[in-house]
Amino acid sequence: MTPAPSAKVFFLIRLAMTVGVITFIAVAWFLHGRGQPPLMSLSSLTTLTTVMYTSVGIAAAVVMALRLRIASAEPAMRRSLSVVAWAVGEFAALFGGVLLFLTGEWRLVLPGALVFALALAAVRIPE
Which of 39, 57, 74, 76 has its CA 20 to 30 A from that of 29? Predict the structure, then answer.
């Protein structure tokens, strides 16, 4: 039987996720600023924005549901659920980064970034 990962491993996972999100958003901003955004119809953009807001709302609900589940889980399951909750928050932030790349609108990054921050704050590093 392998020993349980230490808190240092989970800290590195969170750090890697955070650096990945920041890097993706910075690259999307940089690339959007250098040239023309991809051509999209207004209806496609409206649909994508609606999907993003819906996905971010669902992601926030999933993070909070996982937070409640983690409280009553066994230690091994707690570790797994913690990483899943962080990944759900990361998904929300990356979706906002995609919209930043497509539109150049910073306000579309913020909901996903807030859900990622919520995931990191609500789901602590397991012991």
Answer: 57
